[in-house]
Amino acid sequence: MTKQVPVTISPKRLRREFVKKVKELSGQNLQLCYQCGMCTGNCPAAANMDISPRRIIEMARLGLEEEIADSKTVWICASCLACAVNCPRGFDLAKVMEAIRLLTLRKNIDHVRPEDIPPQERCDLPQIAMVSGLRKFTG
Amino acid sequence: MSLAYYPGCTLKTRARNLEEPAVASMEALGFKLDEVPRWNCCGAVYSLADDDLIHQVAPVRNLIRVKKQGKNELVTLCAFCLNTLKRANLLMRQDVAKRDTLNAFIDEGIDYSGEVKVVHLLEVLRDEVGWAALSQKVKLPLRGLKIAPYYGCTLLRPREIAIDNVENPTILGEFLKALGASPVDFPESTRCCGSYQVVSSPGDIAEYTRPILNSALKNGAEAMVLTCPLCDYNLGRGQKELAKKQSGFREMPLLYFTQLLALALGLGPQVCHFELNHGSPESLLKEKHLLSQVESFQPIGGQK
Asked: Would you give the distance in Å from CA B107 to the centre of its chain?
C-alpha cells in the first residue's frame, strides 16, 4: 500500500548530487516522465511497494533522497521491465531503480547478507537465484 | 550441423532436466550442441548501470570464446543467460567507447565487436528447423495435453532482445502445436514470477506466483511449460505454499520445453529427468498415455 510522505521541495534539493548521480548511472532523462502511471499499472510488485514506481520517478527528480532511502520500493523491484516496455515515453524505470540501489550498495551497505540466509535456503536455492540475488543486493 | 552452445550455471546441476533432453533432442534433429570451451558464468542478470563495465566482462568473455570457436551463432537454453548474453552483445555492437574499454581490458588475444548472434533454442526450432519440419519428426504426439506456455520476463524484455512479439508472444504456443499438444492461452503468461526476490523476500514468492498459476488453471491448463530455471523454482515453491494457503488450489506439473520436445521425439522419459521437476508430471503423462515405459521416478522433495 502506498504511504503518504510529506515532502519539502526546494530549488536546492533539485540541484543535489543525488539527482545528478541517478541521471548519470541510469542514463535516463528524468524529465521525460509525464506521470501517467503505466509503470505502476504494469508492475507485478507494486502492491508490495510503499511508494509506487511512478512516484519514485517524481521523487527522484525532486531530489528527495532521504524519503526514497526510507522506502523499500527499489529493493522490491525485480527488474522485470514490465514498466519499461509499456512506457509511452520510452523511459527505462528499471535503470533508475538500479541506480538508486547502487547509490546505497556502493557505500558498502548490503541489502542482503549471505550469512543471514538460512543454511537450508542456501542449499535449496538454485545457482541462478543466488547469483542474481547477490548481484542485485550486495555491493 | 554443429551449433555453439552456452549452458550456464544451473543447467549442469539443478536444471539437468532442461539441458539433457535438449542435447538429445537436437541430436535427433541433426544438430550437435557444441559447448563453448571454458565458458564462465554470464552473471545471470544484465547490469543496468551505465558506468558498470566490470559486470560486462563475464558475458563478453563468453562471446569472445564463441568467436574463437569459429562460430557466428550462440545457442542458449536458459532465458536468463539469453538475456544477459544478448544484451552484452548489443552493447558491444552499439557503444564504441565501451567496446574499446572492454576489449582493452579483456585479455583474450582478439577484439570483439558483437559479431556473434545470440539465439534461444526456441528460435533455432522456429527459424532453422521450422514448425512444419519439427511436427514431421514427432513420434509421440502430445495429444490431449493442455499446456499453458509461460514466458516470464527475460525472453521478451527489453524489447530490443525479445525473441518474439513483446505483447503477444506465440513462439511457445507454436512449439506446443508442432508437438501435437494444445496450448492454453492465459493473460498472465509474461508476468514476472518474482525472480531473484526469492533471495531477499522468500515469503513473498507465493503472492508473485498466485496470479500466474491461478490464471493458467482457470483457463484450463493441466501443466505449464517453462524455459527458465528460476521461474521453475519460484513457481514450484509458490505452488507448494498456495496449496497450503488457498482452499481448492490444485498444483500442476511444471515442465521444461525441452522435456516435452524429447518426449514427443520419442526419446523416452530417461533423458527428461522428471525426478528433478517441481510438481511431478508422472500421473498426467500416464493418463495421456505419453509415458511409453511404466517406470517411476522420485521427484525432488520426495513426494509424488
From this structure: 31
- Does any CB of chain B come closer than 8 Å to the CB of residue A128? yes
**How far apart, in whole angstroms, are the C-alpha atoms of residue B284 and residue B266?**
17
Do the beta carbons of residue B277 and residue B252 sit within 8 Å?
no
State pTM to two decimals.
0.95
Among B112, B132, B219, B114, residue whose Cα is nearest residue B175: B132
- Residue A111's contacts (CB-CB under 8 Å, 6 or more residues apart) are A75, A101, A104, A105, A137, A138, B200
Testing the interface with B: which of A128, A131, A132 to mutate, by most B Cβ within 10 A? A128
For each of chain A's 139 residues, which pLDDT tens digit applies?
Answer: 566 767 888 888 888 899 999 999 999 999 999 999 999 999 999 999 999 999 999 999 999 999 999 999 999 999 999 999 999 999 999 999 999 999 999 999 999 999 999 999 999 999 999 999 999 999 9
Provide the Cα torsion B179, B176, B236, B270; round to 10°. 10
For residues B112 and B103, the answer to whether their CB atoms sit within 8 Å is yes
If phi > 0 it is left, if psi is from -120 to 50 it is alpha, else beta; for residue A63 that is: left
CB neighbour class for B1 (10 Å; exposed up to 12, middle 13-18, buried from 19): exposed
Q: Which domains does chain A have, with CATH numbers?
A: 11-107 (1.10.1060), 112-139 (no CATH)
Contact status, residue B174 vs residue B131, Cβ threshold 8 Å: yes
Q: pLDDT tens digits, residue range B119-170?
A: 999 999 999 999 999 999 999 999 999 999 999 999 999 999 999 999 999 9
Predicted ipTM? 0.94
List Cα–Cα distances, B262 to A48, B138, B287, in angstroms. 40, 9, 18
* Cβ-based contacts of B15 with chain A (< 8 Å): 126, 128
Contact A82 B41 (CB under 8 A): no
Side-chain half-sphere CA neighbours of B28 within 13 A: 23
Phi then psi dihedrals of residue B112, to 5 deg: -135, 135
Do the Cβ atoms of B14 and B229 come closer than 8 Å? yes
Instruction: Closest CB to B233: pick one of A45, A81, A126.
Output: A126
Grid cell digits, residue A62? 525532486
Domains and their CATH numbers in chain B: 2-121 (1.20.1050), 134-287 (3.40.50.11810)
